[in-house]
């Protein structure tokens, strides 16, 4: 064991310094200042190098966390980066947006002993950003030429991009199709810049393009090409579209103007950050400036919405959630960040109806949210206590209401024109648990469109797994053709 490690008894936990709320609440830059080398090495040295690394066990990618922490503490930063990159295609992105408090850091052994977890995510971000700065992130160089086999990937989110990179590394010809005009999926359009600045995603995309992966944007499968046409073009297909359909609330007045889905709101904001023309934002419909904003929901998307509204200049921002703080699905750190920035949380509150008024154009727009206070009953199947009506009613004035209730799958069999594409009772794509292939031969699926709305790190894991399955499938095709010849 190097002498640099196990310093947790004398070195306190220390995260990168956050910019003050009054400084950061009017821009979309990341809120934490980066570690300097000495601080990253100091914090990495706190790792206890335990025999059973629960941080690694609870990481969906099973990253070799103790190993790259040790390398960081020893000032072997390039080796630390290479170790982190050996299991993850997006370590600097996961380091920024993973809910480490629920995964690796939340299961750190020294956290359980009361010394405060190792700041794993911050170190991961540091060593990978350092790698980009120093030129340690190498170009994609296929191990051999397998370009006689072509792969089509539908969806340029984290699962699709991960599979694209790994399959290109194997030498396959890879084409990525996406409905949007930029790659990255929710990394680009769903997550605000204060959590993930867009240059971070852009440099990953540029590396993939320079590595020989073709991207075809503004491409709708089912319209610009049918699934059957893509299957004729490629030897294997991956569906990694994610889940984008907003879950809806059934309540009087829910269709009133000014009530918007979370993703619609976030995409508009992110597009403005890119300098795009966004008529709905420019008209004020999706701009919270000077308005009272109510966000309904308690996940990370809701936190993205409330913190975006603050930066747009809302006069007040409230988050209504039907459970309490302890039973909230979103990251505790994000709740803290939001509170620091002036967001008010209205716990144990569920909307029941929406009031309206006449807008300047004569159309009805939302004016208030009516609701009822809740109480918590026994735990449900997910272990969280279930909300029940408590009886007391309330009213919150609102000019914009953002619905952040989660996402469901779109009807891909209909959209893609393939009714025999099998789905589950939840609408996600049904795959073979071993091969990850759908009901269509040579068509695989991965990410949220299989597991439902989940974390980016799980999408990366799924992309890694499906790339291995697709490689095996294509190798088997080569072997069959060789025998037939």
Automatic annotation (TrEMBL):
Name of the protein in question: Dihydropyrimidine dehydrogenase
Residue span of region Disordered: 372-393
Molecular function terms from GO: 4 iron, 4 sulfur cluster binding; metal ion binding; oxidoreductase activity
InterPro entries in alphabetical order: DPD_II, FAD/NAD-bd_sf, FAD/NAD-binding_dom, GltD-like, Helical_ferredxn
Dihydroprymidine dehydrogenase domain mapped to chain residues: 26-135
Pfam families named among the record's database cross-references: Fer4_20, Pyr_redox_2
Domain FAD/NAD(P)-binding: 151-463
Gene3D superfamilies: Alpha-helical ferredoxin, FAD/NAD(P)-binding domain
Superkingdom of the organism of origin: Bacteria
Source species: Pacificimonas flava
Keywords linked to the UniProt accession: 4Fe-4S, Iron, Iron-sulfur, Metal-binding, Oxidoreductase
């Amino acid at each position: 064991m190097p002498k640099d490690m196990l310093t947790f008894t004398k070195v306190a936990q220390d995260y990168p310094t956050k910019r003050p709320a009054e400084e950061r609440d009017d821009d979309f830059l990341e809120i934490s200042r980066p570690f300097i080398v000495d601080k990253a090495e100091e914090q990495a040295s706190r790792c206890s190098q335990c025999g059973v690394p629960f941080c690694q066990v609870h990481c969906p990618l099973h990253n070799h966390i103790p190993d790259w922490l040790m390398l960081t503490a020893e000032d072997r930063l390039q080796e630390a980066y290479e170790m982190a990159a050996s299991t993850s295609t997006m370590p600097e992105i996961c380091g920024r947006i993973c809910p480490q408090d629920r995964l690796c850091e939340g299961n750190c052994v020294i956290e359980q002993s009361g010394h405060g977890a190792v700041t794993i995510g911050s170190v991961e971000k540091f060593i990978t950003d350092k790698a980009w700065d120093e030129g340690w992130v190498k170009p994609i160089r296929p191990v051999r030429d397998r370009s006689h086999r072509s792969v089509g990937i539908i969806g340029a989110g984290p699962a699709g991009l991960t599979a694209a990179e790994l399959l290109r590394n194997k030498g396959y010809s890879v084409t990525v199709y996406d409905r949007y005009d930029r790659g990255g999926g929710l990394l680009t359009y769903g997550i605000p810049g204060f959590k993930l600045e867009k240059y971070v995603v852009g440099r990953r995309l540029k590396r993939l393009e320079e590595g020989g992966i073709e991207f075809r944007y503004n491409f709708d499968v089912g319209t610009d090409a049918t699934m059957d046409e893509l299957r004729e073009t490629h030897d294997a297909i991956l569906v990694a579209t994610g889940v984008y359909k907003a879950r809806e609330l059934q309540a009087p007045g829910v269709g009133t103007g000014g009530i918007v889905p979370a993703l619609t709101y976030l995409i508009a904001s992110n597009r403005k950050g890119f300098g795009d023309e966004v008529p709905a934002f420019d008209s004020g419909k999706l701009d919270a400036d000077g308005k009272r904003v109510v966000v309904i929901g308690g996940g990370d998307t809701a936190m993205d919405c409330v913190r975006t509204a603050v930066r747009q200049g809302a006069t007040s921002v409230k988050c209504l959630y039907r459970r309490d703080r302890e039973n909230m699905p979103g990251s505790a750190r994000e709740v803290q960040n939001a509170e620091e920035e002036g967001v008010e949380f209205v716990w144990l509150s569920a909307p029941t109806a929406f009031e309206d008024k006449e807008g300047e154009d004569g159309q009805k727009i939302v004016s208030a949210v009516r609701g009822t206070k809740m109480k918590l009953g026994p735990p449900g199947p997910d272990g969280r206590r279930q909300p029940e009506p408590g009886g007391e009613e309330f009213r919150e004035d609102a000019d914009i209401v953002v619905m952040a209730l989660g996402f469901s799958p779109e009807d891909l069999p209909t959209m893609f024109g393939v009714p025999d594409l099998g789905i589950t009772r939840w609408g996600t794509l049904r795959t073979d648990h071993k091969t990850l292939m759908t009901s269509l031969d040579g068509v695989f699926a991965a990410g949220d469109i299989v597991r439902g709305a989940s974390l980016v790190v799980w999408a990366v894991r799924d992309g890694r797994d499906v790339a291995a399955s697709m490689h095996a499938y294509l190798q088997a095709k080569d072997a069959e053709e060789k025998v037939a010849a």
